[in-house]
Amino acid sequence: MLVFKDFQMHDANGIGVYVGTYKKYNEGSLYGMWIDLEAVSDAEEFFKVCRALHSDEADPEFMFQDFQGFPDELYHESMNTEDIERILKYVALDDDERKMLEDYYECYGGNFEDDELDRAKERCVGCYDSFQDYADQCADEELACMNAPEFCTRYFDYEAYARDLKYDYSVGSHGYIFNDNY
């Protein structure tokens, strides 16, 4: 027996979608429910919950009226099984992978194809508080490789180095840095 409270979102910061129907919406009703995507096992179960929620309609046409907790690129007002499976793949990631993927989308766009997380990982050089921190690390490594005397670092222009280096990288809002030339 399906129990709606098992699938209803209770966490204001959770990952979910608000599911209504076009029929209800066109009749002036916003009746629906926030479905917790972390509570469903797959798209089949998700749509089973949606159908049970709107069992008063013979063939409900679901309208996903709002969403939270996953990238905009994955959301559509009308979603099919494949779309929900993409979102559920995102839900299955750990927090660091989610943030990296969000930054990757921010920098390059995307629609969560199977290999996008792998591409993001390949292009990612790390997560830093600022691009300057990354550039400083690179500069220090370069100076060390050149066996530059320590006094040279006092004369090295770290800000100019960071400015020039940034032409080859993209930075997301979570601090993940990606190599554009990969």
Structure, described:
The protein is of the alpha+beta class. It has helices at residues 22-26, 43-53, 81-92, 95-108, 116-123, 131-145, 158-165, and strands at residues 16-21, 33-36, 62-68, 124-127, 169-171, 176-179. A three-stranded antiparallel beta sheet has the order 2-1-3.
Give descriptors for this structure.
single chain, alpha+beta
The biggest beta sheet, please? 3 strands, antiparallel
Shape: elongated
Oligomeric state, counting identical vs distinct chains = single chain
Mean pLDDT: 92
Low-confidence stretches: none
- Strand line-up in the sheet with most strands: 2-1-3
Q: Measured on Cα atoms, how large is the radius of gyration? A: 23 Å
What is the terminal-to-terminal distance? 51 Å
By DSSP (H or I, 4+ residues per run), the number of helices equals 7
Question: How many runs of DSSP E, i.e. beta strands?
Answer: 6
Overall structural class, as computed from helix and strand content, comes to alpha+beta
Sketch the topology as an H/E string, one letter per element. EHEHEHHHEHHEE
Portion of residues in beta strands equals 15-25%
Please write out the topology.
Elements: E1 16-21, H1 22-26, E2 33-36, H2 43-53, E3 62-68, H3 81-92, H4 95-108, H5 116-123, E4 124-127, H6 131-145, H7 158-165, E5 169-171, E6 176-179
Antiparallel strand pairs: 1-2, 1-3, 4-6, 5-6
Helix pairs in contact: 2-3, 4-5, 6-7
